[in-house]
Fold this protein.
Amino acid sequence: MSNYLNKVLKDTKKKNLKEPEFLQAVNEVLQSVSPVIDIHPEYEKLAILERLVEPERIIMFRVPWVNDKGKVIVNRGYRVQFNSLIGPYKGGLRFHPSVNLSIIKFLGFEQIFKNALTGLPIGGAKGGSDFDPKGKSDFEIMKFCQSFMTELYRHIGQDVDVPAGDIGVGAREVGYLFGQYKRIRNAYEGGVLTGKDVMYGGSLARKEATGYGLMYFMREMLAADNKSLKGKTVIISGSGNVAIYACEKCQAMGAKVIAMSDSNGCIYDKSGIDLDCVKQIKEVQRGRIKEYLKTYPKAVYMESKGSANPPIWSIKADIALPCATQNDIGIDSAKLLVKNGVIAIGEGANMPCTIEATEYFLANGVLVAPAKAANAGGVATSAIEMSQNSMRYYYTFEEVDKKLEQIMVNIFNECKNASEEFKCKGNYVVGANIAAFKKLAEAMKMQGVV
């Protein structure tokens, strides 16, 4: 990297000493955009990178609520409004005990690039809380969401900042959040939250969008390498929205999904995962993936709670789709996947591979579909939901899905073209970072020092 890049990275580390996830995300981007910086020396004078890695605003607040036993609980809430260069802040809310400022900042930073790649007018943000919805009653979740929104409402709006769901925040949580926002504001602003139920302003195909979009990107990436999904075996970490609908589209494209997981362990069914069974367990019963064995006792269950190397990555397959959480695949798991003959990785979660794992995949000829490009289908469809709210009009499922597919094809082509322009053909990780960065840097030049 150039002296300028090294200086920015050093200064960023100094300012964010205890934020490893954020520093990891920044490091990956800075390494990728080095060739762009080399041909644009004016970026140093304009402090493009310094401004890009610093959030425009960080909001942190307490969230007090009362549980079913009458005890007062206090959680911490966050909203990092990272960048509004090309539209209102846009990004999900994550409710999970692991949530801290580093994780929210890394997610917000990734969101800037992801949203730029969609070609839609949306900036980047992220938020959430260390609240854990697991094991909580619907009433407790409602009380928490209402308390959370009682502070958050001051900082959001359909032309200011538009949150959505993420881990731990599904249609139920979005509903409670939206209801409280509407109550406080005394106005119906449909575009202030996305991921809503279709009954009150949500979009058809939204819950499917991230998983479907991932597979549209995978199809294009494999086709560019003269490969296809048909007949391939696939393993998918996670069993939430992204994993479930990646599995659904995978199966529709002729691949066989043989393993899925949750935070406790994974199931391996060599005859192919019964997705209807998984949907019943996860979407209806809100249970654990191990319950799959009640219906299919011949399937294999492997426990992984607390493991640095989840056992799902030891299962031999052609394609791996990490759709659970960040740093799901470390270097040891990467080596095992390569040894077992994996040909492609599709990042359905945000930053699910460590830098070392990604480098190992690329060095061994494995195709990598990077998260900020491959999982952009969710936020792209959220932007489509926003436009429907503005028009007071709703598209059919097929219309939304067609728009999503075209957006993902466009994103792939942008990544491909950027990788070829900067002499790293087939490296879509670098291609995605460069394609997004070029848009953001030019917008910064045009808007002045703000």
Q: What stands out?
A: Residues 344 and 367 are 4 Å apart (CA to CA). The mean pLDDT is 96.
